[in-house]
Every structure is written in C-alpha cells, then in structure tokens.
Amino acid sequence: MASEEGPRHAAITADDRGALLAMTTWFLGCTLVLCVATRLIVRFTTNHLPGIDDVLVVAAAVLAIGSTVAISLAVESGLGRRYFLLKTENIVSIQKEMYAATILYILTVGVSKISITAFLGRLSGTATHKTIIIILGIVILCWTIAITFGVAFACALPHPWETFTGKCISTMPFWIGSTTVDVLTDIIMIVLPIQMVWNLQMELGRKATVVFIFALRLVLIVVSILRVVYLNRFVGNDPTFDSLPYGIVTQCHSALSVIVACTPGMKPFLDHAQSGMLSASLGKHGQGTTFGQDSFNMQAFSKNSAQNSNGSRRRTKTGVALGSQSDTNSMAIEQADSSIGSVYVQDSYGRIIKQRLADIASASSPRPSRASSRSPPRPPPPPDELRPDLSIFTAHVRRKVIGL
Hints:
The protein is mostly helical. It has 13 helices and five strands. The protein has two domains: 18-281, Up-down Bundle (Rhopdopsin 7-helix transmembrane proteins); 285-367, no CATH class.
C-alpha cells in the first residue's frame, strides 16, 4: 500500500505527485547556482569589482538553496501525497519543513530585492534617484522583516508550524497584503531604471538591452500573483496533495528572484550599460576631477549646447562632450558652458583654462598643405609665475664681468 513506510521513489501517480515538486525545485536550484556562479566569474574576470549587491545575491542564493532542501525533505515526508495516506508523524514533519521553507522563501525574495536596490544605488547619478532608492530599500527591508515575523507567528504557540491542524490567522488576507507590497516594489524597480536610462545619450539598441534586463521582473509579478491564486488550496480538505501547485509556484518565485537579481551583473548587460548607467558611479567624485558632480556624462544635451558647439565637440556613446587640442592631445574637459560656447581644458603647462569652442575647432582643423613646408611655430613664452628664479646667479655674473 502507499501508506507503507520505506523510501519514496520518483514516481508520479494519481495519489502521489510529490516527485513533480522535487524535480522542479532541484532544477531551479541548479539553474540558480549556475547563474550566481556566472555572475561572480564575470565580476572577478572583468574590471567590475564585486560590491555589496554581489554579497547580497550570494546570501539570497544560500537562502534559496535552504528553501529547496526544506521542500525536498517535506516531499520525502509525504508532501504531494494524499492526506489520508499519511501518518501523524509524517504530517507533523511536513508542517515543520514547509514552515521553514516559507520563512526562507520570504528572506530569499527580500534579500534579492535589496541587492537590486544596492545595484541601482551605485548607478544613480542624481540626488532624486538616490532618495527614491533609499526609500525603496527601507520599504523592502521593513516588508521582509514584517512578513517573516508574520509567517513565524501565524499560528498559535507553542507549535507555530501547525498550518494544517493548528489555530492560525486568516491566510488569504495576510498573503494578499504581502503580495500587493511585493508587486508594487517590483513595479518601482522596473520603472525607475528605465527612467534613469531613457534620457541617456545611448544607442537605441543599448537602451533596449538595459530596459529588457530590468523588465524581466515582470515575470516575478506574474508568478507572485499566481502564487496567491493557488493559495486557496493550501489549507483545503487535502492540503498535502492539493497544495502541490502552490508549492511549485512558490519555489519558482524564490529561485527566479535570485536569477533575475543576477542578470544586471552579467557581462552582456555590463557591456551595454557601462557606456551609460555605469558611468553614473563617477558622479560621486567632487568638483576638480575629470568627471565631477556637475559633469554632464549622465545628462542629456540641451538644444542650446548643441547649437553653440558648431560641430566643434564630438559626442561619445554616453553623450560626453570631448574637446581636443592638437598640440597637447588633452581631453580633460571638466565643465561646458553652453551659454557662451566655451569649455575648460588643460593647457601645455598643466593649468586648467577656459577656451572658446571655436578656437578648439580651429586648432584641431587640418592645416593647409603649403604650411607643411614651413617650420613649426614656436610655442608661446611661459607666464611669469612659471619662469625659473635666476636671481641667485646675478651677483656671480656681475663679479665676473667687472673682473672681481
């Protein structure tokens, strides 16, 4: 009989479908591990150093694997089998293991979301974006803590894991409220990066790639809603058998949360975003550096600045205007004054001076062919503050002239 004790085999029958949950869970777990490993390899083999977001992704992966192990133990105890075929000790084990798996699921989703906010925090280039990201991170952190405690104490003590047989809070209102906040934060995490990218001076294909990476969270929204739909069967007449779709969708949400959190750290994303979003991290430098806080490497060009350039500035893929000086090969432009058509450049003596764009254009334009026969022009004399002090030699020269 199916109720006899002994090792369970990976067979799907009319009264036992636990193997389906186990296979799905471990497939997602292996995929998750590969994605995290790929992200770490990309980080360590490129110039993009690991950050706090990478640490959080690894932590979320560990929590997801823990949830996978807990669900596997629950399947081994009888999850997916008809309730009337199980013994009392099996039902108690299933409830404990599902209790642990649910807590780990909440922590996995929360930590993976916080890793995305940490990643966006490194990319944000304006104070408004930073403020929104900080508020979003606080909301996600509070949501994670509140839902974790809600699940931990959903049923009466001293047995809070007895979701099948104990006295518990109303399940549907609790998870509907939880899912609502979850979906709203996902929507913000989709809209905010798109808004950050949309005004960048990037090729349309690069923008589409960055937008697609963050739009993958739409899959998580769909899975989160499906989880609530299947929740009604979780505490039905046959909870161990009818809750199988709910368990599969929950494990999908847990694993996909980590997988989607890994995608911004993959090399294809970095190759497309480093010319736009990743340069925003340079905004943390103060004025006086090559890319200061007021630098416009993350700002869209205005029409006035485009008209004042008169073709003398060339734009890179990120929209950075670079002024070149033929005799110094210097590209150390710090700020552009679009109202008067001038930029700050470094002269041959290392000083930062203000120069008109028209002068830069004339200096970088090709010389007439007849000028090649002439000798190169002499450089201008250095200013007085850069001339060497020769006063110590004056007295000696005078003595030698008068014969002393």
